[in-house]
Specification:
Radius of gyration: 18 Å
Strand content: 5-15%
């Protein structure tokens, strides 16, 4: 049986970091890594949806994972999302990731053209072949990718010995049960939707990868520990508090990640810059929303982390 314990726990989806000119800032990448390490997370998921990967060049994505590994290598688990909308560039990023020593690579299916499952299988395996000594995580996010991971495709992908599981961001919690039951203990399922972390963990997810973890990683670390301790009553209360914070984060005019980065500036003095167009930057009226979200996080920390 494989030891997948290094993948268990709280793994924030890493935010893209820019300077004042909108270019990738490796200095700010390193600052964010150290902040998250200090908050006690188990790993990082880099260059995914929260990392605005679809709007970055392959060279920029290389710069980001290089800076991440400068700080994180040997300290926490690192999963690098390498999917591009073509196999060639995805394989380049996969090989680069292995050279840097990441723990795993991950990939969504190709988007835009609706490909048959055998083409998606071939795409994923080609990416994995470019990093033959690195674990591979399937990223299932059908609401954005336009295609869902089926039981048949997952079964086919498990013929690849490097496949270790699924980052499941589909909304039905039952999907987690389906993937966990089909694959057994040699594989891991990561809960994707932050609002249902408790539900996902109780349905078989051993870990969580989420886009709002970055502004409140310690709250999710606490939530995961409550589940481990089987204190489900308090876990439910904390999950509800987290969901109220998430509702506030997504209520702005600008993109949610622009609001989240403003919250980090307020609460942690961590400046990651703005977001990459065509994502909408922070609107003037969003500053009040960010301030309110920041205060909600402080209040939740006082309530749940004080003891």
């Amino acid at each position: 049986m494989r030891d997948l314990s290094r993948y268990e726990g709280i793994i924030p989806a890493f935010y893209a970091c820019y300077d004042e000119q909108g270019e990738v800032s490796q200095e700010r990448v390193r600052q964010q890594v150290q902040y998250l390490i200090d908050k006690g997370v188990q790993g990082l998921y880099v260059n995914g949806s929260s990392g605005e990967c679809i709007y970055l060049t392959t060279e920029e994505r290389k710069q980001i994972i290089e800076a991440v590994m400068d700080v994180a290598k040997g300290k926490i688990t690192v999963i690098n999302h390498v999917a591009c909308n073509n196999t060639k560039e995805s394989a380049i990023l996969a090989a680069h990731s292995e050279q840097l020593g990441v723990d795993a690579i991950a990939a969504i299916p190709p988007i835009y053209f609706k490909l048959p499952e055998y083409s998606i299988e071939k795409y994923w395996n080609a990416i994995s072949d470019a990093a033959p000594n690195t674990d591979f995580v399937i990223y299932n996010i059908p609401q954005l990718a336009g295609v869902a991971l089926t039981s048949q495709l997952y079964q086919a992908m498990r013929k690849n010995p490097r496949v270790i599981g699924v980052k499941n961001s589909s909304m039905p919690v039952q999907d987690i049960q389906t993937f966990a039951a089909a694959a057994g203990e040699d594989y891991i399922v990561f809960n994707g939707p932050d609002e249902q972390f408790v539900g996902g963990r109780t349905m078989g997810a051993k870990a969580g990868i989420g886009g709002t973890y970055g502004v409140m990683p310690d709250l999710f670390v606490k939530l995961n520990q409550l589940i481990i301790d089987q204190n489900m009553a308090e876990a439910q209360v904390l999950q509800f508090a987290i969901n109220d914070i998430i509702a506030k984060l997504v209520s702005g005019q600008g993109n949610m990640y622009a609001v989240a980065k403003e919250v980090l500036r307020i609460n942690e003095n961590v400046d990651l810059g703005s977001v990459r167009a065509p994502l909408e930057p922070l609107a003037e009226e969003d500053k009040i929303i960010a301030q309110e979200a920041a205060q909600m996080i402080v209040a939740a920390r006082q309530q749940f982390l004080a003891s």
